[in-house]
Amino acid sequence: MLDLPILSLLIWLPIIGGLGVLIVGDRSGAKQFALGIALLTFVISLPLYTYFVPSTAEMQFVEFIPWVEAFKINYHLGVDGISMPLILLNTFITVMVVIAGWEVVTYRISQYMAAFLIMAGIVNGVFAALDAMLFYILFEAMLIPLFLIIGIWGGARRVYATIKFFLYTFFGSVFLLISLIYLYQLGGSFAVADLHKLPIDIIPQTLIFLSFLLAFGVKVPMWPVHTWLPDAHVEAPTGGSVILAAITLKVGGYAFLRFALPIVPDAAAQLDWLVILMSLTAVVYIGFVALVQQDMKKLVAYSSIAHMGFVTLGFFVIYGIAKNTLNISGAMNSAVLAIQGGMVQMVSHGFISGAMFLCIGVLYDRMHTRDINAYGGVANRMPTFAALYVLFAMANTGLPGTSGFVGEFMVILASFRASPWIAFAAATTLIVGAAYTLWLVKRVMFGEVKNAEVATLQDLGRREFWMLAILAAAVLLLGLWPQPLTDVMEVSIKNLLSQALQSKVCSGFAGGCP
Amino acid sequence: MEAIYLAIPLAPLFGAIAAGLFGKKIGRAGAHWVTILGVAVAFLLSVYVAYDVMGNGNSYNGTVYTWAVIADIRFEIGFMLDNLSTMMMLVVTFVSLMVHIYTIGYMHEDPGYQRFFSYISLFTFSMLMLVMSNNFLQLFFGWEAVGLVSYLLIGFWFKKDTAIYANMKAFLVNRVGDFGFLLGIAAVLLYCETLDYVQVFARIPQLSGANDFKVFEDTKWHIPTVIAILLFIGAMGKSAQVPLHVWLPDSMEGPTPISALIHAATMVTAGIFMVARMSPIFELSDTALNLILIIGATTAFFMGLIGIVQNDIKRVVAYSTLSQLGYMTVALGASAYSAGVFHLMTHAFFKALLFLAAGSVIIAMHHEQDIRKMGGLKKYMPITYWTSLIGSLALIGFPGFSGFFSKDLIIEAVHESHLWAAGYAYTLVLLGVFVTAFYSFRMFFLVFHGKERFDTHGHGHDDHGHHGHGDKPHESPWVVTVPLIALAIPSVFAGYLLDPMVVGSFFKNAIFVNDAAHGFDLGLKSWLSAHLAIEHMSAEYHGVMGFILHGLMAPPFWLAMAGLATAWFIYLKDDSLARWAYDKFRWLHTLLDRKYYLDDFNQNVFAKGSVSLGNGLWSFGERVMIDGFVVNGAAKAVGWFSGVMRHLQTGYLYHYAFSMVAGILLMLTWFLFF
């Protein structure tokens, strides 16, 4: 079992399967074929969890094939406790997305399914890549299927949204490429593990850090480089929104952990205030912006940005925590807690935002509008849907017992050690987050049936019900018992922390800079 | 034994799931049977556990499962069973059981019958998890879970605009409290490195001398004070203390059974319970205790005043609940935790009774809730009448009834307290006794005595059509009256537990009172949960009868009698006094009627302010600055630049030839001379 190249399978099976779907074309069976591929990918990803050894920070399931030997670029794959859960999240959400498009997409169905399958393969590669150049290539390749998904199956203003989305993210990644080339010049290797060990002076570190911040910050997205997201969400088809929110945003957060913190720790420590400020702005400012949205998708998109603020906050608050010398072992505990919180928040946000967008899709398929004012009293006609919707809304407000609580709770608890004021600002989400979410629920779900269209709504079909019910189960399970997730991440996060808190400026190294 | 502990919360949870997910399959009767069975099991097992814990002294503290372990921090779900938590379990499960039975009668025509039973069972589960917790994580879990169920139940009739406004308001105001509560938990974790009660309580005294809480670089605060105040903000939200009380009166939009269960007897007392549980923290901070005294006394008196001008039967009881919660809070502030918890228990019985009786009246009145349109119901509803009388007497603290013992104890305790806020608190709680008696019997007389002012013909909700309009009101069915009687019994007799519960050392392991900090001679006290007031009273205590006799001579009794008599005079004898007062003090009436303008303030400043802020950020920050100026601006700049550059591509051969020659010249110059 373990001899199988699982990671390669997870990358190439959906990509080749997606090409296969294209060949099958829009004949009957294309959907079934796509679902089969998605399910198979998910099943293949499960051994990553069951055979994972949580007691080591070493990379596991490693594959290594030299690729472009002239530049020492290798096809080098492997996972640790940080990337493995994200791969599982990806394969899981992909199944959901295929099911979500089942009866809804009628136009070029095979291409639609193929785009999502190829996307899944690429994202698996992004999370598994241990070679910086391989990472970069896949990181960019991710844009192509998304670009097509929004551009072909999107809404009325899809062209504006796709161009904006593409240029925005591409602009950020150009700097990433420059940084990676610089690092290669410096250390002679693209291997992520080598980059982690490479000593770099503080000024190049700072420049590299800023380029990382731009590249990954756009992906997360962080305030103020977030405005592509609401537009992209509004125009994207339901499946596109789900992938965008649940998976693509996670790539940004993951890249901060894999690249920014361990490669340029000194710069990160110096500029942590900037990232924390941006994160808190995302939490507070974006919360208020979400409050006044009239478009359901925009509201949830803004809420996504606010929730991702907790991820970056958790990752960067560790430097402030380490500075608090009240109790050294306690500081380590809190730092681990902060990163764990950010990671759990990523996984949880994958479930919740995915579910929220699926819910909006359910309504949109029936009413063909996302305008909140067009709804009202939906619970009268769709009681089962209302129950699930309220559950996801509550998860979105971070209610204990749902997954939304876990990450926020951990990050707030940990950041209190860095500064009570950071915790104070972050905890305002308890109020603001509840305000925009519950106001949405009130206007859409409750009240008398508002108009004739609402009066004709039908409750969930079987496909829709199971799709949402499975996500609901995931949200509750992670909320009631996060230990299976936190345990596999623990050692890798501790290892990451030791790298992130270790100075890499040349003077600190015996041999000096190479 | 662990299995039994676990079964207590899980039995109602099972009922909730069965009625909620499979409500259609098991039907209406199935839903109420399965949930009642679940709660009954929980109640009986609670009795058994209480017997074991209270009687045999077998307290328990253990883990159920590990939620997560992060580095060295263990987050666990576990139970702590001592006298305090088992008493709460008894109260919760008993009142819940009564409310479940009552609901069969009250909700029997409602289309959401199964959903309602599912919610109240879910509530019972959440509340049990809250009180049984042995750590802050689970406490917060239960804390928010009861808030969720409260949200669902206030908005149970989700077609009603007022109901869905009220439930959102309740949730958001509670979130303001939770905001402080969560930060308090974060502070606990920071300074104690654990969320387990026992370990926290062991470490917290070591922090009592430390003024280490860094607010800014140069400002440092006393750590236990910061923690205590943050936690108390949570209690203010949940237990509806001024200024976070605004949600509770509006919560009356929910069905009456849940007003009794959640918004009177159990959930709103969670804050009181929490502070009593955290007594080792609160005892270290006189600042926090003073704050608690002020907040509690303000709530007790000023909310009672509003009760006088309310005409909705449920709202009168709601304001009375606010006021009584204020009394409990005052007790906490005076370090008389056992008195506060004692009042919590007696209040749970008589207030649940009053609410359920109000519900019984509402059924008879075909969902009319205005007490000005009632009157003379005594002869039609004898059981409701007599049980209401018992509830009202208990509420005003008539000697011999349960409320008398607990309320007297609180007033005495405040009297004995040495904190500087105690004088303010004592004055207000004493005046509050008059107010309580006045509004309680105003309502009582208006509803049950005097002229029949109700309309026997006509209006009424269509869903209650077959009650027979035009008939005289009649007594409610047995499922309604039996819980009334069952609650009336402890409303009278629970007070006699004074002897073992407060005077004895009942809470000695659960409640900590820092006698040394309050200037006592440690040698005098024989048991830990003593505080000056209670110690003093125990010393002079000569049995329940002595306590009653003492009460008959104390000012609270005469104030209560005066309130009762005033209400009788104005509302049954001669209302010219009321008219005179109304004309003379119209401003006061308006002030009370507008609830001190606090709702208007919140609505205009916080609600509208947030929306305006959001609109401002959205239109200026998002659209003008980021998207308009930076993003689209960059796009325009590129467009402009390429527009300029385009002029270079003229297409004329001689332009290109000229630039080639010029370029070659430049390069030659460079290579030759540099």
UniProtKB/TrEMBL annotation, chain A:
Taxonomic superkingdom: Bacteria
Biological-process GO terms, alphabetical: ATP synthesis coupled electron transport; electron transport coupled proton transport
Transmembrane segments: 6-25, 32-52, 82-102, 109-127, 133-153, 165-187, 207-229, 241-261, 273-292, 299-322, 342-364, 385-406, 418-441, 465-482
NADH:quinone oxidoreductase/Mrp antiporter transmembrane domain sequence ranges: 129-429
GO function term, MF aspect, one: NADH dehydrogenase (ubiquinone) activity
GO cellular component, one term: membrane
Topology of this chain in the membrane: Multi-pass membrane protein
Localization in the cell: Endomembrane system; Membrane
Keyword Transport: no
Keywords carried by this UniProt record: Membrane, NAD, Translocase, Transmembrane, Transmembrane helix
Nucleus as UniProt keyword: no
Domain NADH:ubiquinone oxidoreductase chain 4 N-terminal stretches: 59-121
NCBIfam families assigned: NDH_I_M, PRK05846.1-3, PRK05846.1-5
Family: Belongs to the complex I subunit 4 family.
Official protein name in the record: NADH-quinone oxidoreductase subunit M
From TrEMBL, chain B:
Location in the cell: Endomembrane system; Membrane
Keyword terms: Membrane, Transmembrane, Transmembrane helix
Regions that span the bilayer: 6-23, 30-51, 84-104, 116-133, 139-158, 179-201, 221-237, 258-276, 288-309, 316-338, 344-364, 385-405, 425-448, 478-498, 547-571, 653-673
Entries under Gene3D superfamilies matching the protein: 1.20.5.2700
An example Gene Ontology CC term for this record: endomembrane system
Xref: Pfam families: Proton_antipo_M (PF00361), Proton_antipo_N (PF00662)
Entry GO MF terms: NADH dehydrogenase (ubiquinone) activity; NADH dehydrogenase activity
One biological process term in Gene Ontology: electron transport coupled proton transport
Stretches assigned to the NADH-Ubiquinone oxidoreductase (complex I) chain 5 N-terminal domain: 67-117
Domain NADH:quinone oxidoreductase/Mrp antiporter transmembrane: 133-425
Membrane topology: Multi-pass membrane protein
NCBIfam families noted in UniProt: NDH_I_L, PRK06590.1
Protein known as: NADH-quinone oxidoreductase subunit L
Organism, scientific name: Thiothrix caldifontis
